Amino acid sequence: MGRSGKLPQHIAIIMDGNGRWARERGLPRVEGHRRGIESIREVVRAARELGIRYLTLYAFSKENWGRPKREVNFLMSLLSAYLDSELKELEENDIRFNVIGRVGDLPPGIRKKIERNISQTRNHKALVLTLALSYSSRVEIVDAVRQLCRRVQLGELRAEDITEGEFSKALYTSGIPDPDLLIRASGELRVSNFLLWQISYTELYVSEKYWPDFRKADLIDAVEEFQKRERRFGKTEPEESGVKRLSLTSGALR
Ligand code: FPP
User: Structure pTM?
Assistant: First the structure.
């Protein structure tokens, strides 16, 4: 990153291609997931080093419950181990842990670990790491509509006061700025029910790499591509947002 450029404040990632990565190597799909955890570790560390403030990873969709039981169980055991093994890293690196999705769908043991990690990292400031778990953007939007309707019924809110801002606050991502950059691994050109409301103005970047091969250099490639683009938010003037301008030298970062 040799140029001076805007650094995305919030990067969201659709981690995809674990199964294909494994199949191409004649390995069971679950090996792709196991290796995908290593990519998560490296990307979280790299995001922290680059100064990204929010990183949101699509770890398990609501649709993923429909996979074979054995694969779902394996993903849950990986998640459980990840929640234990990464806590120290989060604590040492000032990373706040967060989740979005229907967390109530997850097994109780995992919910406990999630609550522990959220609580133990709640005052951390450098990076907010959000895992989307049992997540569906359409369900999130429906949940937000229900919440707003309830508030209208209770007389706390008037229908005409439901603005875009009020709606955003009813989403699971309340308090988190919309992503500046959405990365999708494995070359697929789909949004897959991820952050549909929040990515209205987000720059999209598709990496050909399968997620288990996606590493720090790939994150940097995506950020560099982002820095080349000019976001206008539908207006004619270049943006004047609070996005930071940084000068980074590639040797130091890679
Ligand atoms: C799927 O690739 C990707 C996921 C199911 C989400 C990401 C999951 C991990 C990185 C591993 C588990 C991590 C946690 C924290 C639970 P795919 O199986 O859809 O790949 P394919 O499209 O090639 O079949």
Answer: 0.91
- 177-197 pLDDT, tens per residue? 999 999 999 999 999 999 999
The SS3 of residue 4 is: strand
To test the pocket of ligand 1, the residue of 31, 63, 211 to mutate (highest count of ligand atoms within 8 Å of its CB) is 211
pLDDT for 248 beyond 50: no
Q: Going by CA atoms, what residue is nearest to atom 22 of ligand 1?
A: 17
Do 117 and 85 touch, CB atoms closer than 8 A?
no
180 a catalytic residue: no
**What's the order of all strands across the beta sheet hosting 203-206?**
95-100, 127-135, 54-61, 10-14, 181-184, 203-206
| CA 38–ligand 1 middle distance (angstroms) | 12
Annotated active-site residue 93? The verdict is no
Residue-wise pLDDT for 114-161, tens only, equals: 999 999 999 999 999 999 999 999 999 999 999 999 999 999 999 999
CB of residue 99 inside a 6 A radius of ligand 1: no
Domain ranges of the chain: 10-136+178-231
What is the homologous superfamily of the domain 10-136+178-231 according to CATH? Decaprenyl diphosphate synthase-like (3.40.1180.10)
Using CA atoms, how far residue 184 sits from 120, 219, 237, in Å, is: 30, 11, 28
Residue 246 is predicted with a pLDDT of 45
Q: If you search the block for the tokens 């720059």, which residue do you land on? A: 203
Task: Name the closest-CA residue to atom 8, ligand 1.
Answer: 59
- The number of the ligand 1 atom at minimal distance from the alpha carbon of 20 is 23
